[in-house]
Amino acid sequence: MREMMKTTRDIARELARKYSTMTHDELDILENILVPMKFSKGQTILSEGEVCKNIYYVEKGLVRQFYFKKGKAVTEYLAVEGDIVMCIESLFKEMPTHLQIEAIEPVMIYALPKIRLEEVALHNVNIQILYRKILEESLIISQIHADLIRFETAQDRYQKLCRLSPQVALRAPLLYIASYLQMTPETLSRVRSSAIQSKD
Fold this sequence. Notes:
This protein has helices spanning 8-19, 24-33, 88-93, 114-121, 125-151, 154-164, 166-171, 174-180, 185-199, and strands spanning 35-39, 44-46, 54-60, 63-69, 72-79, 84-85, 100-103, 107-113.
């Protein structure tokens, strides 16, 4: 059976369920500012040097946020269905970003343009709450990742990823997961095989 295509209204409802309750009118407003965007595998969603103007909600697919350090790509974040992705510093300072966002699988995302979101948030308390909750969630995710790298062993990092983002652990290429968890692919392979063995 083929999956039903979601409408912009469905996405507005999903966001409202996740972040804030909304009246019928507020759902209308939210629906009107959502911009559906489709990307094929390997396509760039946001390039280095661009200004990030949107908050992206992943409806389908897998997305990677990364940057280059000494010529090497470093994965900053991996997002799947139901996740939010943005370059927060670029979004608020309105400056070019050092980060890039790309589709690892065919992706359907809905952009929430910051300018429009802020305009409607001024007059709608529940949309204001939604905006704040999205930003709070983004900051918490960044903090969890920073603490993971600082305090956890390689084994614990991987186990925590499996617990918090099982779909990322299943679907993302090993190279990107290793980079995100700041370990070598060899270390990740060892950690994964010992995790599988301990389940047996």
